[in-house]
Every structure is written in structure tokens, then in C-alpha cells.
Amino acid sequence: MRGERTDERTGAGTGARGGEVRPVRVVVAGVNGYGRHHLDNVARLAAAGRAELAGICDVAPPSGPSAPGVPVSADLPALIRDTGAEAAVIATPIHTHAPLAAAALRAGAHVLLEKPPAPSVGAFAEIAAAVAETGLGCQVGFQSLGSAAIPAARELLGEPVRGIGVAGAWSRPFGYYTRSAWSGRRRLDGVDVMDGALTNPFAHAVATALAVAGADTVDSVAGIELELHRANAIESDDTSSARVRLADGTVVAITVSLCSDRRTEPYLHLHGEHRSARLFYTLDEVEIDGVRTGFDRADLLENLLAHVRDGTGLLVPLARTGGFTRLLDAIRLAPDPRPVDARFVRTEPSRLVLPGIEGLAVRAAAELATLSELGFPEALGTGPGAPPWPEPALRVDGREVAAYVRRGDLRATDAPRPHLHPVRTLGGTVVTDTQPDDHVHHFGAGIAVSDVDGANFWGGSTYVRGEGPRMLPNHGRQRRRTLRPVDGGYAEELDWTGPDGTVLAAEERTLTARRPAGAPGGAWALDVSFTLTGRTGRPLVLQSSACKGRTGAGYGGFFWRAPKDPAGPDVFAVFTGEASGEEAVHGSVTPWLALTSDAWSLLFVQTAGLDPWFVRVAEYPGVGPALAWDRPLTVPDRLHRAITVVVADGRLAPDRARELAAAEGAPA
Questions:
Q1: Alpha helix (H) residue ranges in 531-600
Q2: Residue 437's CB: how many other CB atoms inside 10 A?
Q3: How many Å apart are CA 386 and CA 492, to the nearest integer?
Q4: Beta carbons of 357 and 260 less than 8 angstroms apart
Q5: Looking at residue 64, what is its pLDDT?
């Protein structure tokens, strides 16, 4: 089943009355942290003629570049009145939300208020009173509640939801708790702050679960059980369980931690009478019967602007967050979190880790249990058959060799896309790198193109002829429509969407893992194929930076970013059947190419299509066939490519690489 797709963005009315839409004047309060995202979003909507940045409000000067000529003030109500702003975005510390939101409303502006809306039921009531008094809208920034995946999850389940489990496991460095005066605090100078795992970083998880359950109002919550813990030396919780019993009998059990050894994608486990489903709210995906389906998400500021102009209903009005605020208030009134016994905490240079917390979170969501019921903390790392985190992975002979990742925490400038990482040899050596310091927009092994009809699907800067690299607001993203298991791996359908949400291309992709032909037990083979089809009614035009004047920068297509070696680039060898060395093979057109080191070898064989090789060794190790090497590639209908990568432990000799390539179909 495919996710519902339309040409119009959900809930975003045009406000047209037979003429052009007048941009909504917007002020942004709090721009030295997450508020910079809102500034970028206002700029995006301004480029579309929907918004105009009227002013910036902060107690400190903006730390980054801001719009020239835009007034800056520390007085939000005065800024609204002086600029005639019709909407205010508030992204300030939690304890300032209620007074600022009420003041902005009374100054005449509709409000987009960052989550959580308020640190207590009393503060929530203050905002609600201002909404009632002014008749203006207050949208709460729970972005996940703008997702079409929420109603779809219940529909796909096809039966009543009797319970919802929530599992979340992230990692946070020590610096996370010192980023501001209120970080990791329950109270600051006698004022409620409530910056804990349940109420801030995982607030979207809590709010999404309550939304799926229909627990919108304060009165929808019948009872709450809390287990608050902390491994770090902070006031608030970093590892906790909450079990909420709703008035209709539904149980919502939430277990989250900021002390994992890695980032995972949090999810809701929906329990029906006979079936279950998972909702990955950061990805807008629903998984049922092994198939993942992706859905659209409406932008909440865009929705608020439509509300201002033509009365479009708000997607996340303040009233819809009453159930969440009821839980937050219970956490506020609860005893301080209990420290986790140091015996169960692993201290690393930059963070604390609770080994095995991911497995406990998965179990808690599956059993609608709390941490104590699973034996926390003694059960850390020792639970019977702790289940793995539910994420796609490729396996050979039952052994996981590659994780297939789609991350919900990436910025627009990363050109978010699914990718393989980590990829391992059968001996366990990792042969991919992700977001390395030298190129933070490199992501393991995947498919990326620097220019598709003017949109950047590679990430980072865009090369402009005559100017060089420039950071432009032109980044696209690959959005999953479906991911389903097939023999040996997965088949996937994706939309390549431009920065304005237009679908430029559709892609069909398959990724499978197997034993390679003619190889003994020390290697495995990855098969990747993809087909791009234009969706704009005109031919697709693919370009690389080399097409625009940057000599040798023909990258774009399937690309593998390998890890650097501590000993330096001299440990790597790169060769084809005809030549060796980076300079000799870069740009060559041959069926196969090998990149080897003492620890691992990668043999790339083009099995459909034959493109020049883009190769880097001295700067960083990376390889990929280049679709548009030095001139644009016009695709009138469809583009199909396939590649096999043999992943081996140790260093492959050239003769052995040639034999393996021939066994995979390369000409001898």
C-alpha cells in the first residue's frame, strides 16, 4: 500500500481571493539556538511569496547571519506592534513560553510556539486564556503531528488500538547538558523549566503517542505511572518510563533514554487485538507486516500562515496538546529522578552510556511495561534475548553485514537520503563512513546526485559556474514511499523532492546481499540497482560540478564513502584491469574497479550501464560511477543503473580482483 500523495501540501491553503496572496509578516523570537531553523523556514516561505520576515526578537544579538535591515528587539510585544507582524514564532527557553505567547497574542499576532507549550498545567491555562481572549491562533510546534502517518497508522492497523508502546534511545554528550543555563534542569531560579528526556528531546514521541490514542485534552488522561532516572549529574531525567492510562482504557507505555551508545529512530508500537504496527514518527513511516510506507508531513508554519490568510484549520492548536501537558505536569510534581547505580554506567570520554538500554526500550514497548518491571537497572545488558532495534538490515548467512538507514535528524543541507551504514566485512570491519569532518554530507554508501533539475541531492554547497562553491537553498531530499522485504534484501520506492516539495523524480531501488560468485568464505556481495523516472512532464537533467566548470568533480550516482586509515592514504591501492593509482583510474571507463587496504577490499563491478569512475584516495577514500562526468545527462524517460560491490576482508591482489569481477559478469 502506498502513502497518500497529493500535489498540494496538506493543510496549506493559498489564501487567494482572485489575486496574489499577500505575504504574512512574521517575527521570530529566540534565534540563537533552534530558532535559526525557523529563520531558514521563514526565508523559504518568503521565497515562495508566503511570508516576510518583519523582525527578530532576542535578548542577545543574533549569533549567525540575519536579514539586513530587519529590526532586532528584546521586547516581543513592542516588536509586533511596531512592525505590524501578523504571526510570531517563539523558540525561547521553555519557562518563557507562557508569558511570551500570551504577550504576543495580546499584541495582535498569531503564534507558532515551540514544544513543549508550557512547563505546567497552570502555565498552559495562561496561554489558553489569551487564545480565548484574542480569538487568535496558537499552533504548537510538535512537527510530527503534521504528519499524515498518524491517521494512517490506525487505518493500516485496521482494528482498535488497545495499547501503544514508545521506544526511544539516543546518545547525548556531556556538552548537551551545559549548552544553556536551563539544560538538564527541572527548575531555574525558582521557575519550572522541565528539561528532561520525556519532556524535551522525546516530547514528540510522547505527543505523537497521545495523538494516535486520541488523548488531546487534559481530561483524557485517567492515570500516570512514572519512573524517572538519571545517569548524568543533572537535575532532570535522562532515562525514564511513563505509563499513561487514558479515560477510554487505552494504555500508553513510554520508555526513553539519552544514554544509548548510538542514535536510533524512535517509534510507536501500536498494539491491536490481533495485529501490531510501528510508527516511526521522525520519518513519517508506518511498518506493518514487514512493509514500510512513507507519508507526507505538512509544515506547521506554512499551515499557520494559511490559517492567518484564509482561516485554514490549525493542525496542532494549543487545545490538542492538553494530554501532553497533563503528563508534563505529573513529571513536574514527581520526586527528583533517581541516580542510576554507577555499576551499570559506562563512562566514555564525551558521554555516559547505559549498555543494553536499547533492548530494554524495545521490550518495554512490546510488553507495555515499565523499566522496573523489566528489572532495570540490573537487567541492562543481561536481559534474556534482548530484541534488536527494528531497523532494516542486510544479512548474509544470518549475519548482519549492513544497516540500511534513513535518519530523521538530518538538516536540509545534508540532502537527506537513505543510505547503507555501517557496512561491514564478514570479519566485522566497518568499510563505510558517515558525516566525516572533511565532508559532513557524505553518508556511507548510497545514491546521490549534485544537481537534478537545479536541486542539490548530494548535500553541502552547490558549484556555481564563475563563482565556485556556494551554499544555496536548493537542497532536495529522497522520501521513502515503500520499503518491502525481498529475497536477500529490500525493494524500495522513493520520491526525489525539490526544496519546494515538488516531486522531480521517482526511483525504484533494490538492495540485496549474497555470497559472491567464485569467492570463498571471506567475502560477500552487495547488489544495488536503481531506476529514475522523471515526474515533471519534461526530461530530467542531471549535472555534476564538473559540468559547471569544476574540473574532475564529476561525482554523482552510486557513491561509496569509505573510512580513512589512521596510517594515511598510502595504505590504499586503487586499480582497474588496465591501470592503477588515483590519477590513472579517475575518469576511466572500465567495467570494474578495486579499492583495497590491508584490512579490507572493495571490488566495484558495473552490471548495468558503464560510466566513468569518480575516485578519491589522497583526500579521502571514495568511489562511484559518475552519471554526468563532464557534461549534463538528459533523461527523456527513465535511467537505469546497477552495480555489484564485493566486500572482502584483507587486501585483494589484482589478479584475484580480476577473477572475482569476471565471476560477477565483467568482461575478462
A1: 582-585
A2: 7
A3: 28
A4: yes
A5: 61
Q: State the chain's mean pLDDT as an integer.
A: 93
Judge contact between 169 and 103, C-beta under 8 A.
no
pLDDT per residue over 504-529, tens digit each?
Answer: 999 999 999 999 987 667 899 999 99
- Answer whether 643's CB lies under 8 Å from 625's CB: yes
135 contacts 125 by C-beta, under 8 angstroms: no
How far are the Cα atoms of 119, 214, 342, 343, 354 from residue 346, in angstroms, in the given order? 31, 39, 8, 8, 6
Asked if the model's pLDDT at residue 33 lies above 90, the reply is: no
Residue 577 has pLDDT above 50, yes or no: yes
What residue type is assigned to position 525 of the chain?
Answer: A
Question: Which is more confidently placed, 308 or 14?
Answer: 308
Cα 234–chain centre separation: 27
Looking at the predicted structure, is the pLDDT value of residue 69 above 90? no
Instruction: Answer with the residue of higher pLDDT: 192 or 617.
Output: 617
Strand partners, 358: none
477-509 tens-digit pLDDT: 999 999 999 999 999 999 999 998 999 999 999
Length of the chain: 668
Give the Cα separation of 668 and 591 in Å (integer). 10
Instruction: Judge whether 58 and 71 are in contact, CB under 8 Å.
Output: no
- Least trusted range by pLDDT, from 4-18, 119-133, 303-317, 437-451: 4-18
CA 575 to chain centre: 36
- Respond yes or no on whether the N-terminal peptide bond of residue 632 is cis (omega within 30° of 0): no
- E-strand ranges in 449-582 read 451-452, 462-464, 468-470, 477-486, 489-497, 503-514, 523-534, 540-543, 557-561, 573-575
Can you read off the three cell numbers belonging to residue 551? Answer: 574540473
Contacts 24+ apart (CB under 8 A), 494-502: 494/418, 495/5, 495/535, 496/452, 496/455, 496/457, 496/532, 498/453, 498/454, 498/455, 498/474, 499/44, 499/412, 499/455, 499/473, 499/474, 499/475, 500/48, 501/9, 502/536
| CA–CA distance, 5 with 516 (Å, rounded to integer) | 39
Determine how β-strand 51-57 pairs with β-strand 72-73: parallel
Instruction: For residue 586, give the C-alpha cell.
Output: 579517475
3-state SS class at 278: strand
3-state secondary structure of 132: helix
Which residues have C-beta within 8 Å of that of residue 519, sequence separation ≥ 6?
525, 646, 648, 660, 663
Check residues 169 and 61 and name the one with the higher pLDDT. Answer: 169
Give the amino acid at 665: G
Task: Please tell me which of 27-41, 209-223, 614-628 the model is most confident about, judged by mean pLDDT.
Answer: 614-628
> Cβ(198)–Cβ(210) under 8 Å?
no
Q: Provide mean pLDDT across the span 330-343.
A: 96
Question: Could you tell me where the beta strands, DSSP code E, fall in 337-418?
Answer: 338-339, 346-347, 352-353, 393-396, 399-405
State the average pLDDT over residues 657-667: 92
In sequence order, the 6+-apart residues with CB closer than 8 A to the CB of 18 are none
**Amino acid at site 454:** G
**75 residue type, one letter:** D
Check residue 665 and report its DSSP letter.
T
Cβ-contact 241, 249 below 8 angstroms: no
